[in-house]
Specification:
With 147 residues, the chain is an alpha+beta fold. It has 3 helices and 6 strands; from the N terminus they run ααββαββββ. Strands 1-2-4-5-6-3 form a 6-stranded antiparallel β-sheet.
Amino acid sequence: MSDQGIPRQTGFMERVKTKEVPIGRLIGFQAKKIGGGKATVEFEAGPQHANPMGTLHGGVLCDIADAAMGMAFASTLAPEESFTTLELKINFFRPVWQAQLKAEGTVVQRGRTIGYTECAITDAENRLIAKASSTCMVLRGQKAAGR
């Protein structure tokens, strides 16, 4: 058990496979599909996610994109591997107030050590809300320990 009373999974890939994402509980997103270098995250944006101007805070869009890309990349890892994100970029295309959003992450390139992922965030009408990309680094051995 963790100090919050939440049962701990045995490892990183087990958490990914069971779609157990603590930040998802906090913000309110859910992992829906994970595998084969792809992952989908669904999220219901509401007033509790607003910035001071009243629209969806860009950091929340970064979170759901990062989660989708990270889970997509994680689905390519061997059991003894982990990873870290080296860089994340996002472009915002339209404001959101309240909406059902979908973030679809895809691994575009997976090398032995470095990978590149992309994510499209769309609304229920399939309008493009944001597009993100990230560079990931595979960790092995001592560098992967405890992750």
